[in-house]
């Protein structure tokens, strides 16, 4: 397993870098000066103020003036505020497989603060496409962060045509992350384009010596993420539709997972039927699970109520109550 990847939550501006990740993801060290950092009305400016502090010299005006993205991020961070919508620079856009792209963005805030399963909202340059597109943060390195996405509609098609040097508006990171608090054998069960948050978890866990990372990825055909997760995983097994599915992989590894010295904890993301099958498999064996759900979204931060999901606690918002939910909270598991 590669050593030190990134800290779980580094609110300082201290330098850190993933070893393998930094070699594969371009790192930008120069300060970026962009056009106006756009902060349209309605976008949340402040998340929770951790210290409750309001730093002198950082006032609300910072979010409405024309400043570059680094300034927005820097001032918001030092004021313990969540930076607003801002324009960031595209560092790279790689085609990983037909219809699957990796977009690398220069944004120190996302790179330093995004936790596994958190997502960012990407905005179209077309003002008629009001709604941002949520994408899970995949890898981070230095001041850059990547997302991996499938081209499925107008927004993702537009993002697939971005070139290095282009700008794109972003908001985030948003949502709640996987709970990686306990020492465990984290079994990452991903399907299709559900793998980015699991790669983020693998990168984060690879910095620790009290955990093991077992990645079980299922693809329709091309194994586009194996090379990305490989440096962070102690064990990687992948399967394509023609060979079977992730439940086949879980069955194959059952003895090893259940009998391991470290208790297994499943983290999963992918199509809902796959995750429900994983929940059933895990609950029959008493293995705890956390699922990162995908739901159609509007705002991404809790105001539009587009993204609700039925849970045992009633209807909850995937964007702010999730996207991560446990089996118990969802009422999934045996017999469901
Ligand atoms: C928390 C979260 C994380 C995600 N992470 C990834 C990822 O890492 N990689 C990836 O490929 N996809 C991811 N998705 C799905 C991705 O957001 C959609 O594929 C994308 O929004 C489609 O946009 P579009 O304009 O191309 O499609 P269109 O169908 O043209 O979109 C129309 C509208 O519907 C919304 N929409 C359409 N499909 C989805 C969807 N599945 N989920 C949410 N909103 C949708 C769009 O955001 C847009 O507002 C994630 C979704 C969520 C909720
Ligand atoms: S997307 Fe608006 S409330 Fe969740």
List keywords for this structure.
22% helix; binds FE2/S2 (inorganic) cluster; binds flavin-adenine dinucleotide; Rossmann fold; 9 helices; 14 strands; alpha/beta
| Unreliable residue stretches | 1-66
Ligands and ions found: flavin-adenine dinucleotide, FE2/S2 (inorganic) cluster
CATH class of one domain: Alpha Beta
Largest sheet: 6 strands, antiparallel, barrel
Summarize the amount of helix as a percent range: 10-25%
Order the strands across the largest sheet as they lie in space: 1-2-5-4-3-6
Based on helices, strands and strand pairing, what is the structural class?
alpha/beta
Quick structural gist:
By secondary structure, this protein is α/β, with parallel strands linked by helices. 22% of the residues lie in helices and 27% in strands.
Question: What's the layout of helices and strands?
Answer:
Layout: H1 19-24, H2 69-78, E1 86-97, E2 100-106, H3 108-113, E3 119-123, E4 133-141, E5 144-150, H4 154-160, E6 167-174, E7 185-191, H5 195-205, E8 212-219, H6 226-229, E9 235-240, H7 246-258, E10 264-269, H8 272-284, E11 289-292, E12 308-311, E13 314-317, E14 324-326, H9 327-330
Parallel strand pairs: 7-8, 7-10, 8-9, 10-11
Antiparallel strand pairs: 1-2, 1-6, 2-5, 3-4, 3-6, 4-5, 11-14, 12-13
The structure holds flavin-adenine dinucleotide and FE2/S2 (inorganic) cluster (FES).
